[in-house]
Amino acid sequence: MSQLEAIVWKDGQLKILDQLLLPTKSVHLRIETVQQGWQAIQKMQVRGAPAIAIVGCLSIAAELQATLGDESPGAQHPDCESLHNYVSFSLAHLVTARPTAVNMRTEADALTKYSSSVRNTCTVAEMKVKLIEWCKNLLAEDVATNKRLGDHGMQSILDDAQKESREKVTLVTICNTGSLATAGYGTALGVVRSLHAKEKLGGLFMLETRPYMQGARLTAFEAVVENWPNSTLVCDGAVGALLNTHKVDAAVVGADRVAANGDTANKIGTYQLAVLCAAHKVPFYVCTTATSIDMTLESGAAIPIEHRPQEEMTRVAGHRVAAPGIKCWNPAFDVTPARLITGGIVTEFGVFRPDQLKEAMASHNK
Ligand code: MRU
C-alpha cells in the first residue's frame, strides 16, 4: 500500500487513511457501513472534495458487499425496488456530511440515476454487483481525469513560462489537493505532479492552511514522499511577503464547488491568496475535475459555506493555544470571485476562462 493511498478498496473491503493522524501516524481505518462513511467524512478523517464523494459511494458498496449472497425474502433488500430506495436514501444522507463540496451530490445524482436504470433489468444479487462495480470504477476514473487535468494545467503554465524563457516553474498552493484528497494524483497537486514528471518543477510553496493544517500536515507530507524540489512551507500570513520577494510563476488551487460564472469555493485562505496574486500579477489557476462544477448555481453567493467547531482554532494537536472564553469565527471555505481567476479554470477537458465555463461544460455534457 502506498503511503499516499487515501482510499483502498481490496477484496470487497474499504479502508481509508486516517488523515487526522498524518503525518506522524499512518493508520488505515476500515469503513463497513454508510454511517461509518458519513462519520469519517464529517470528522475529516477523509477530506478533499473528490475523496469525500468516492468514500461516500464506496461505503454503500461495502455494505452491499457484506450482504452479497443473502437475497432471501427476509433479507435487508428483498427486491430491487427496496435496494434502490435504500441506495437513494443512503446517498441523500451522505450528502449532508459536509455541505460545501458538491462532489458527493454530483456522484449521488449519478448513482441514483444508474440504480434506477438497472433496477428492472436484473436480480437483487446482480443489481448489488452492478452497484458495487459502479462505485469501484470511481477510483480509476478519478485518477484518469486528474492526470488529464494535470497535463492541461502543466501545458498552460509552461506556455506562459516560455514567453519569459523560463525552463522551470515555481508554484504556490494552499490546502491539500493531491493524492490524499483524491483517488490518487490530485488536482492542483496533479499539475505539480505533471510538471515534476517532466522535470519542469522548480519549486513549490505551500501555505500551512490554518486551522486544520492541510498544507503543513498533508501537502508537506506528499512533497517529502515525492521528493518535489525546493518544497517550502509558508505560514498563511507570510504569503504577501512571499509574493513580494520571490519569483512565483503561478498559484494553483483546488475547488470544492465552482458556480456557473466561475466563482469558486475552496479552502479558507484561497480568496486572500487570489487577491495577493492579483496585486503581484501572478496568474491564479483553479484546478478541478468537472465533478466539482455546479452549473445549478449562477454565482458563488449561493454556495453554502461550512463552519467548523471552534476547537479546531482554539487547540493545536489537542493543546489549547487561544485564550479561554474568546469567541471564534471558523468558516472552512471562502469564495474567490471569477475575476480573480486570472490563469484559468483547469479541468480534464482543458483550461477555460471563467466566462467560457458554461459553454465548455455544455459541450462536454452533450
Ligand atoms: O476541508 P477540506 O480539507 O476537505 O478542504 C479541501 C479543499 O478545499 C480542496 O482544495 C478541495 O476539496 C479540492 S481537493 C482535490
Automatic annotation (TrEMBL):
Cellular localisation: Cytoplasm; Nucleus
Active-site residues, as the UniProt record annotates them: D256
Keyword Endoplasmic reticulum in record: no
Catalytic reactions on record: 5-(methylsulfanyl)-alpha-D-ribose 1-phosphate = 5-(methylsulfanyl)-D-ribulose 1-phosphate
Swiss-Prot/TrEMBL GO biological process terms: L-methionine salvage from methylthioadenosine
GO MF term list: S-methyl-5-thioribose-1-phosphate isomerase activity
Broad class of enzyme this protein falls into: isomerase
Keywords of this entry: Amino-acid biosynthesis, Cytoplasm, Isomerase, Methionine biosynthesis, Nucleus
GO-annotated cellular components: cytoplasm; nucleus
EC numbers, comma separated: 5.3.1.23
Keyword flag Transcription: no
Pathway: Amino-acid biosynthesis; L-methionine biosynthesis via salvage pathway; L-methionine from S-methyl-5-thio-alpha-D-ribose 1-phosphate: step 1/6
Annotated positions for site Transition state stabilizer: C175
Protein family: Belongs to the eIF-2B alpha/beta/delta subunits family. MtnA subfamily.
Summary of the function given for this chain in its UniProt record: Catalyzes the interconversion of methylthioribose-1-phosphate (MTR-1-P) into methylthioribulose-1-phosphate (MTRu-1-P).
Alphabetized HAMAP family for the sequence: Salvage_MtnA
Protein name (Swiss-Prot/TrEMBL): Methylthioribose-1-phosphate isomerase
Source species: Hirondellea gigas
Classification of source organism: Eukaryota, Metazoa, Ecdysozoa, Arthropoda, Crustacea
